[in-house]
Amino acid sequence: MSNEVTIEVCAFNLESCINAEKGGAGRIELCGNPTEGGTTPAPGVLIQARKLVSIKLYPIIRPRGGYYFYSDDEIESIRQDILFCKNIGCDGVSIGAQKMDGSLDLDLCKRFVEWAYPMKVSLNKAFDLSPNLNQSLEDAIESGFERILTSGGKKAAIDALDILSALMTQADNRIIIMPGCGLRSYNVAAIAAATQAKEYHSAARVDIANPLTYQNPLVHDLGSVFNASAEEVRLIKANASAALI
Length: 245
Fold this sequence. Notes:
The protein has helices at 14-22, 43-52, 72-87, 106-116, 133-143, 161-171, 188-195, 230-243, and strands spanning 6-11, 27-30, 56-57, 92-95, 120-123, 147-150, 176-179, 199-202, 205-208, 225-228. By secondary structure, the protein is α/β, with parallel strands linked by helices.
């Protein structure tokens, strides 16, 4: 059995995309708005990211934060964003949708996959918000998703080792199970040992201090810059690989 793993880096800016590739990541999930859990990046950021990196680029398509139930207008904006990503040469997108009862919207997810073709499609954290992960896994396969990003329905992947292992067994190579959320170099070995997954998702991030020589102390609404660390990506990949049987 090969110990080669793929690390997907959740990147919130262009420097993180560059660092992800430097660190040996195989794929980038490019997002905007880290405080919202990731939303669709701006067109200019997407275009520049595609120019800067040669590894696979899967932007998240999510018009806003919050739940994954979308209005007709939001669905149309999602369609336009998927087509834009396809036109600029992205390799895939990360997306998901729920019904009002929290379950995956199978019909809408199928439409997402159809709109994206020939790009591949990852199912995002809408999976973890669904009330029945086992049923949602089967729905994801029927929809045509390539993989599922999941923390096993828990706050962090490290808290759901038994659930993730069971999802791997249920998937039975019909779809990729990619553990993520709270995944770092210091805990990925435990996740890899329990799941034997071949793909892992992490922001691999470090907080970046404001480099400006002056900042008005009365203004506190700037937010923060979260950059992926190339060294953290390397460590995640090495530690995950070493834990595989």
